[in-house]
């Protein structure tokens, strides 16, 4: 079973982060919620934001 790398919550069918390949619960899945190392590259390189996340505005 996977666990959230941020809070340690046990996860079933975790999706993980598209950017850093970490595994996170829904609360920490967003890059900004786990200080994602991958999204920092995105900010620099521009627009690779696709539909990898729930909860987009
Ligand atoms: Zn979590
Ligand atoms: Zn990440």
Task: Summarize, please.
By secondary structure, the chain is an alpha+beta fold.
Supply the key terms.
57 residues; alpha+beta; two-stranded antiparallel ribbon; 2 strands; globular; binds zinc ion
Description:
The chain is globular. It is built from one helix and two strands, in the order ββα. It has one helix spanning about 35-45; strands at about 1-5, 10. The chain has about 55 residues and is α+β, with helices and mostly antiparallel strands. Strands 1-2 form a two-stranded antiparallel ribbon. It starts with a strand and ends in a 12-residue tail after the last helix. The protein has one domain (about 1-45). The structure holds zinc ion (2 copies). Keywords: Metal-binding, Zinc, Zinc-finger. GO terms for molecular function: zinc ion binding. This is AN1-type domain-containing protein. InterPro entries: AN1-like_Znf, Znf_AN1.
Q: What is this structure's SSE topology?
A:
Elements: E1 2-3, E2 10-11, H1 37-45
One zinc ion binds next to loops.
Question: Average pLDDT, to the nearest integer?
Answer: 79
Mass-distribution shape: globular
Low-confidence stretches: none
H/E topology pattern: EEH
Structural class: alpha+beta
Distance between the termini: 30 Å
Q: Ligands bound here?
A: zinc ion
Note the beta-strand portion.
5-15%
In percent, how helical is the residue content? 10-25%
Overall tally of structural domains: 1
Q: What does the largest sheet look like?
A: 2 strands, antiparallel
> With helices defined by DSSP (H or I, 4 residues minimum), what is the helix count?
1
